[in-house]
Amino acid sequence: MMQSSLLSICRLINMMNPTLTEPQNSVVAVNIDREAMEEIRKRKGVPIRTLERRINLSKSRYYRWLRYQTDLPLELVMGLKKVLNMSDRELLNLFVSSTDEQIQMLGLVIYTSMSNQETELKQFLNLRKSLGKFKNSSDDNNAYKLILTYADLVVHCRNGEPSMFELRRIGEYFTSIDYFTLFDILLYLATLRISLNYSFSNAVMEKESIILENSLLKKFSSNQSNEWKDILIGCVIDLSLCFVDMNNHEQAIKLLNKATVILKRQSGENRQTKEIFQFLAYLYVTKDISSEDTVINKIKHNMSNSSSYLPRNEFDFFKNLSIKEKCVFE
Q: What pLDDT is recorded for position 138?
């Protein structure tokens, strides 16, 4: 039985797929990692005015494209490649696996894999079966192959037959990249959570967690459109809980503090999120979690009031929150 769900996945499901509908597995749905493209431009020192002069791409249109407010035709994308002096391989590496379709599939697989409801577990097994068609496919379908690998890992763990093969395969993927997309962040968190729930020792995943933290905070800081903000906040909370389960309380608290600083810099600061960060940090340093604790009782009271407007899965996440193998709101 699963010991923990992921807040980020609950929020992803609520935002993109509340009916738990299986997305279509189109092999041609691709997207360009626009943030990585911008990093390449900055690293190579190519001014925006050069894009306007050489390929007629205005500054305003370029930045709207970076914020996912518009798309660019293929000829302009290829023009960017030429101006930035990128190789074919560099461009291919930017065709990321984080399309909405693939993120929806990943989110649905993770969500159902961590459920204790029979209907959702059955759906998870059906999803795994559906993903089987990608097992021997080309590298163009790497996202779906990774989702299948995660699903295989969960099935083996649930059956009491843990296998290091899937963990190694996913770990090798993360050591091969130096930039995490949202797809990567969610896959990493789910795999790490499975490893911790089933007491796997995975030095590779734990080592890469620092790279994940840096990528997550950078994405959180640069997320001007707020499109993924609630999901990224969920990722911060999920990763901090993983750090605690790895007995790295100091890193968990540092992560929450860094995220709080970013929140303060952003417009429309979410007071509730700030309070959650502060409460978790309090729990991480509290040696003995007690039902008599006044701070815990205050949050418990606030939670009872939030049950009317919070989605059920988010409410259950906080209701069942466990720190140091002890339920906080017993």
A: 61
Q: Which residues contact 285 (CB under 8 A, 6 or more apart)?
A: 249, 253
| Measured distance CA(22)–CA(16) in Å, rounded | 11
Tell me the C-alpha distance between 217 and 222, whole Å: 9
Nearest to 212 by CA among 244, 188, 237, 241: 188
Q: At what angle do helices 7-16 and 312-319 cross, to 10 degrees?
A: 170
- CA dist 154 → 151, 160, 162, 186, 197 (Å): 5, 10, 8, 15, 11
pLDDT at 99: 63
Tracing tokens 């789910």 back to the chain, one arrives at: 190
Share of the chain above pLDDT 70, in %: 88
pLDDT of amino acid 114: 94
Q: Assess contact for 182 and 228: CB atoms under 8 A.
A: yes
Largest CA distance in the chain: 68
User: With contact defined as beta carbons under 8 Å apart, do 256 and 277 qualify?
Assistant: yes
- 8 A C-beta contact, residue 220 and residue 259: yes
Look at 187 and 29; give whichever has higher pLDDT.
187
Other beta carbons less than 10 A from residue 261's beta carbon: 11
Residue with tokens 């605690």: 244
Tokens of 54: 């050489």
Q: Residue 129: which residues within 8 A CB-CB, separation 6 or more?
A: none
> From the CB of residue 102, how many other CB atoms can be counted at a distance below 10 Å?
25
- Orientation of helix 118-131 relative to helix 100-113, angle to 10°: 130
User: What is the rounded CA–CA span in Å between residue 21 and residue 23?
Assistant: 6
- Is residue 194 within 8 A of residue 153, CB to CB? The reply is yes
Encode pLDDT of 34-69 as tens digits: 888 898 999 899 999 999 999 999 999 999 888 777
Q: What is the pLDDT of residues 260-303, one digit of tens each?
A: 999 888 766 677 888 889 889 888 888 777 767 888 888 877 77
